[in-house]
Specification:
An eight-stranded mixed sheet has the order 3-4-2-1-5-6-7-8, with helices on both faces. Strand 3 and strand 4 (58-63) form a beta hairpin. The chain contains 15 helices and 14 strands. It is globular and about 65 Å long. The chain has helices at residues 21-33, 70-83, 101-109, 124-134, 139-161, 170-180, 206-211, 232-245, 260-269, 287-292, 308-315, 328-331, 345-356, 359-376, 379-395, and strands spanning 5-11, 37-44, 53-55, 58-63, 92-96, 116-120, 164-167, 187-189, 218-223, 249-254, 276-279, 296-299, 320-323, 338-341. It folds into two domains: 5-193 and 378-395, Rossmann fold (3-Layer(aba) Sandwich), CATH 3.40.50; 206-376, Glycogen Phosphorylase B (Rossmann fold, 3-Layer(aba) Sandwich), CATH 3.40.50. By secondary structure, the protein is of the alpha/beta class. The two termini are 22 Å apart.
Length: 396
């Protein structure tokens, strides 16, 4: 019997304690591949993660970081991994975003030539470009964008040094070639997926609305990190007009991040704070129910490598309103599973209002969205493609 290939995966955030798109991809793919590969996940000591555990056939190892803001914890985590280079034994290494750039350099210096895969979700250099022009930046946002530019430089170097690059969309692949000047032949596109059993249509939405305090209202839902590129100021501005024409509408914002206080203040300034419900620390089990309670899912993001929340919303048979930019065009079918508009708050409000006023259109788009996602974006498909990438890497 052939021995399993040993796979070491690196991510600053512990995937079992965070619910971002990167973490969800790691959990869902490794769960499906644990019978095929011997997998160990190395991540930072965040949210109390300080003991090695086994979960779904995968080993999770804590590596010293900080429990502070992303750039700092990422820096400390990378230093820790670099010091552990001799003790991390694997046939294949895989780092997500910039979670292993320093280890990659150390391995090369030590002459350890095992294949290294750099998985890029949203291209950080592109995220920096889009975030810089999306809002009039405060001092804090300018500081955040400087970090983003620095991280983009690190990701570029890691992409050049890695044996293979995996990314989630054609858009991201094009940006990697353009901004990181790496050959296209080095890139493999493996889209994210969605758990189709977990995220699925249900009829009991009013009780869920009651649970979060929006019973009897039309619900416009957003799910994601509260960061500049998510474009939530567009949604707040759009809400002002939507509420004028549809007073029973509530906007539910699921997620946390550095812009939270800024967004609450801006909602108050625009006179719509009473129509917004901000939910941050929700359980992963509750998330599918929040999609179910939505009438429309809105994603005003100006840059997405793909956008897992867009997949989840459509899997739950919800129509999507989003901007016609970046990789969003690959995962939302305009006028079939949702409405794609130009990055403008007025256009956004028009699209939301047109869906809120037409239940049959919402249901038709929701049905089409579920069908589209089921055929193209399951985690089983993602895991199967990643298995092929690992096999290819091991053969080089």
């Amino acid at each position: 019997m052939n021995q399993k290939l040993k796979l070491a995966i690196f991510n600053t955030q512990p995937p079992h304690l965070y619910f971002g798109g990167v973490e969800r991809r790691i959990l869902e793919t490794t769960k499906r591949l644990s019978n095929e590969f011997d997998i160990t996940i190395y991540s930072g000591t965040k949210k109390g993660f300080n003991k090695t555990i086994a979960l779904n056939g995968t080993t999770f190892v804590p590596c010293h970081s900080t429990d502070m803001l992303y750039p700092l914890d990422n820096l400390v985590f990378n230093r820790t991994l670099s010091k552990m280079a001799n003790s991390i034994t694997a046939d294949i290494y895989e780092a997500h975003t910039v979670s292993g750039y320093k280890l990659l350099k150390t391995l090369k210096k030590k002459g350890i030539n095992k294949p290294f895969i750099q998985t890029i979700h949203g291209v950080l250099a592109d995220e920096y470009i889009q975030s810089s022009k999306s809002v009039s930046p405060s001092l804090r946002l300018k500081f955040s964008n400087l970090f983003m530019r620095h991280l983009g430089t690190l990701e570029k170097q890691a992409a050049r040094d890695a044996n293979l690059i995996v990314t989630v969309s054609r858009y991201s692949a094009e940006k990697i070639v353009q901004l990181y000047t790496v050959p296209e032949k080095k890139i493999r596109i493996v889209p994210n997926g969605v758990d189709l059993q977990k995220f699925k249509p249900k009829k009991d939405c009013e009780s869920i609305k009651d649970k979060i305090g929006v019973k009897g209202s039309n619900v416009v839902l957003f799910v994601g990190n509260l960061i500049p590129r998510k474009g939530l100021h567009f949604l707040i501005e759009a809400a002002k007009r939507v509420i004028k024409e549809n007073k029973e509408t509530k906007f539910v914002i699921v997620g946390d991040g550095p812009l939270k206080n800024n967004l609450v203040s801006y909602s108050k300034q625009q006179g719509v704070l009473d129509k917004f419900v901000f939910l941050d620390n929700i359980s992963d089990d509750l998330l599918p129910d929040l999609y179910v309670c939505a009438d429309v899912f809105a994603s005003p993001s100006v840059q997405e490598g793909q956008g897992i929340s867009l997949l989840e919303a459509q899997a739950t048979a919800k129509p999507v309103v989003a901007f016609n930019v970046t990789a969003i065009k690959e995962v939302v079918k305009n006028k079939e599973t949702g409405l794609l508009v130009e990055p403008d708050s007025y256009e956004l409000s028009n699209a939301i209002l047109s869906l809120l006023s037409n239940k049959s259109l919402r249901e038709k788009m929701g049905h089409s969205g579920r069908e589209f996602i089921s055929k193209n974006f399951s985690w089983d498909i993602c895991a199967q493609k990643m298995s092929q990438v690992y096999s290819e890497a091991s053969a080089t």
